[in-house]
Every structure is written in structure tokens, then in C-alpha cells.
Amino acid sequence: MSETILRLEDVTRIHGTGEAQVTALAGVSLEVAAGELVAVMGPSGSGKSTLLNLAGGLDAPTTGTVVIEGQALGQLGKDGLARLRRRRVGFVFQDFNLIPSLTAAENVALPLELDGQRVGKARRRAVDALNTVGVGELADRYPDKMSGGQQQRVAIARALVGDRRLVLADEPTGALDSHTGEGVLRVLRERCDAGAAGLLVTHEARHAAWADRVVFLRDGVVVDSTGGDVAESLLEPTA
Amino acid sequence: MSVKQGLLALLATRPMYGAQLRAEFEARTGGTWPLNVGQVYTTLGRLERDGLVEGIGADEEGRISYRLTDTGRREVAAWWTSPVDRETTPRDELVIKLALAVTVDGVDVPTVVQTQRTATMRHLRDLTRLKQQAMNASDDATPEAANPGVKRDDQGRIDLAWLLVLENLIFAGEAEVRWLDHVESTLVREAVRGPGARRTPAAYENDTDRTTEGARS
């Protein structure tokens, strides 16, 4: 078994109090190992986005523990949490969230520079990251001169630049046509095959199918999970 | 689809003997519909009897190659230009199972739905892995890749055929998951309305306010 990158232990998140109290997640446990892509599916309001926010330290659970690369988020102060988010976690959103006044390389280098790395080194690592997602030639281009699929690849590069190995993706293909979306998932899959850990929220079965496992959420509870290895017989079509 | 039409379509490209036909058929469909060689020879026998193919003598190893007759050629042309008959498509066991599940007392329908969805997602994942491999193979295609001895252009087309077969299976799985989601949300709506609220088909026919159905987020 590979190293566990993300672990949620019996995580519950309750919003509001009293009559207005809403349980967004109720006792969810989940692990994502290095090299693994896990998809989360479920209807609107089932807790998918809450799960992703908790996994990335953007929100804190009411009870339960979130652990990223051995570090329990609840034990970190505000600064420690910000540092961990910067160094360990990457986000990919439906609308790409690239900074329009920065080139692709500058967007990708930004988290490294915020973390104190020198500009030259940060740029070199950014260009490396862009190459791994197949858009190295776009390094000096601005987001408005890129297609949606290209922007999303840049966003994946940004999410995984440097030493970060956990990528949290919230409907990353939502704004793309199905062919382009497929290309983005293929890149995400490749990054995970190369050792990253990915958590992918999607409502599309075709996209969730790129994951190793699918976790089904309903009313804040995991109702099922497609465990098991890929069927070996299927991987040898001519056998 | 019958084996007959597949063999005729292949024989339209060049004369072949049974084992060749079988290999070609499986290469083009990625082994999705395995044929046994006995099936191929039985079918060839019937095609010859019906005047659609004719034997053109044996090679040094005694293998008889077949080619299309004019009648056979017309049959292939007609097949390409006519749509596939959906009336003869076999009934889907899942559809029947769920139709029975919602009408038989004591069946936990949500669990039936979820169990199936999990299995279908697993199947979709396996198909997607195959697709990823096929895409990677076609990205770094070299002439000697995969089947040695096959011309590069032919290999490219066989890869494409396999990718399209996989996509078909993925679309079908995706449609099944969407339908299961729909079944589930319909059941939830029915449960909210209460068991007494279920109406007879006649009541539905008089319904003028059905436009809000099927909304799914």
C-alpha cells in the first residue's frame, strides 16, 4: 500500500445551531494514497463540496480529524494551516481561477514565490510543471489567450507545482466541452499515476470513471464506494 | 448483430479463410465479441449454401479461402445502407429487474439501485483504463507497435475501431448510471408524496402539469 496523503477520520460538519442546524457531513472517513485518484459523486446538497473544503483545510470539521501527509490540521494554528495549504495542497476549480494579469508560468510560480522561493528557481519549477501537463509552450502566454482546456491544464500544473502532492478538484471539467474535459482528466490521471494523490468531485459518471475509486455521498453520508482493483481480464483485451 | 453480417463485411475487403476471418473480426472489435472458430466455419457453411460466398480452393496447408459472390456483395451493400433493427435488441435484464423491484413488496429498491450503480461505475472505470491505454498507444504509435506485420495504416485504423468500440461501451454505461440516478430521484419524489399518492395510468393521462418532471441537478 502506498503512502497515505489525505485521511479523513469520522468527519462531521454541522452548519448553524438550533432549529437552523444543518448536517452537511456525518461521520465520513476516507483515505487517498499517493498514486491514487478518488472521485466523489452524489446529488446536489449531498456534502461533496463540504468534503473538499475540509480536505483542503478551507473549512474545519465540527468533529473528527483531517490529516494531510501525517499532519493533523486541527493541531495547526492559522499560520501553520496557511503554510500547509500553500506547500502541500493544490486546488483546481471549475472556472480555472488563473490570475488574468499573469502569464501561465507566473501563475504557476506564484505559490512558490509566496512561499519565499527565488523568482528564477520558481519559474524553472513552474515551466517543469507546465511541461508535465503538456503545455510547456504556453509558459509566456496570458490566460485570455488560452483555450479553456489549456487554462485548466495550467491550473493543474499550479496545483501540483513544487513538492505538493495533493490535488483537490471541484468539477474541473464543468466549464469545458466533453472532449476537452476528457483531456483534462487524462492529465489529472497521469499526474496521479506519477505519484500525486487526487480527490475529484464530479457529477458525471464518465469523468468519475477516470478515478481508481468512487465514493458515493448522500445526505452527508458515504453510502457506497467502488473498491477493488481494476479488472485484470479487461486490461488484456486480446487475451 | 449477426456473425453473418460481420463475416460478409470482412470478405468484402479480400478473400479469407476461417481463422483469418476470426482474427480480423476480433482485431477490429477489440475482442469485445469473441468468436470461436467453429462458429466462423458453421456460418461460412451457411453463407455458401445460400450463395453469398464461394470457396476458392485450398492453400498448401489445406485452408479454404472464401470470397463474396455478387449476391453476397449486394447483401453487404444493403447492410451498410440500412439502420440496425432495434426491435430485435435483447431485453435489458436491469430494466426488467427494476420494474419488478418497484412492484414487488419487500424489495429494498434503493439498495438495488446503489448496488447496480457501484457495479456499473466499476465497469466504467475499467473501460476508461482501457481507453487510456489505447490513447497512450496511439500517441506513441510506432510502426512495429502492437501487431508486428500489420501495416502502420491498418494498425492505426484498427486502434481507432477499438477506441470507438470502447467509447460505445462507455456511453452505454454512462447512460445506465444516469438512468439509475433518475430512478432514485423519482423514488424519492414518490416517497415524499406518500404511497397513497401513487396514481393509476389513467390518472396520468389526464395530467396536464407534467412539465416539471425530470428536473435533476
TrEMBL record, chain A:
<dbReference type="InterPro" id="IPR003593">
    <property type="entry name" value="AAA+_ATPase"/>
</dbReference>
<feature type="domain" description="ABC transporter">
    <location>
        <begin position="6"/>
        <end position="235"/>
    </location>
</feature>
<keyword id="KW-0067">ATP-binding</keyword>
<dbReference type="InterPro" id="IPR015854">
    <property type="entry name" value="ABC_transpr_LolD-like"/>
</dbReference>
<dbReference type="InterPro" id="IPR017911">
    <property type="entry name" value="MacB-like_ATP-bd"/>
</dbReference>
<dbReference type="GO" id="GO:0016887">
    <property type="term" value="F:ATP hydrolysis activity"/>
</dbReference>
<dbReference type="InterPro" id="IPR003439">
    <property type="entry name" value="ABC_transporter-like_ATP-bd"/>
</dbReference>
<dbReference type="Pfam" id="PF00005">
    <property type="entry name" value="ABC_tran"/>
</dbReference>
<dbReference type="GO" id="GO:0098796">
    <property type="term" value="C:membrane protein complex"/>
</dbReference>
<dbReference type="InterPro" id="IPR027417">
    <property type="entry name" value="P-loop_NTPase"/>
</dbReference>
<dbReference type="GO" id="GO:0005524">
    <property type="term" value="F:ATP binding"/>
</dbReference>
<protein>
    <submittedName>
        <fullName>ABC transporter ATP-binding protein</fullName>
    </submittedName>
</protein>
<dbReference type="GO" id="GO:0005886">
    <property type="term" value="C:plasma membrane"/>
</dbReference>
<keyword id="KW-0547">Nucleotide-binding</keyword>
<dbReference type="InterPro" id="IPR017871">
    <property type="entry name" value="ABC_transporter-like_CS"/>
</dbReference>
<dbReference type="GO" id="GO:0022857">
    <property type="term" value="F:transmembrane transporter activity"/>
</dbReference>
<keyword id="KW-0813">Transport</keyword>
Automatic annotation (TrEMBL), chain B:
<feature type="domain" description="Transcription regulator PadR C-terminal">
    <location>
        <begin position="91"/>
        <end position="187"/>
    </location>
</feature>
<dbReference type="InterPro" id="IPR036390">
    <property type="entry name" value="WH_DNA-bd_sf"/>
</dbReference>
<dbReference type="InterPro" id="IPR005149">
    <property type="entry name" value="Tscrpt_reg_PadR_N"/>
</dbReference>
<dbReference type="InterPro" id="IPR036388">
    <property type="entry name" value="WH-like_DNA-bd_sf"/>
</dbReference>
<dbReference type="InterPro" id="IPR018309">
    <property type="entry name" value="Tscrpt_reg_PadR_C"/>
</dbReference>
<feature type="domain" description="Transcription regulator PadR N-terminal">
    <location>
        <begin position="7"/>
        <end position="77"/>
    </location>
</feature>
<protein>
    <submittedName>
        <fullName>PadR family transcriptional regulator</fullName>
    </submittedName>
</protein>
<dbReference type="Pfam" id="PF03551">
    <property type="entry name" value="PadR"/>
</dbReference>
<dbReference type="Pfam" id="PF10400">
    <property type="entry name" value="Vir_act_alpha_C"/>
</dbReference>
<feature type="region of interest" description="Disordered">
    <location>
        <begin position="198"/>
        <end position="217"/>
    </location>
</feature>
<feature type="compositionally biased region" description="Basic and acidic residues">
    <location>
        <begin position="207"/>
        <end position="217"/>
    </location>
</feature>
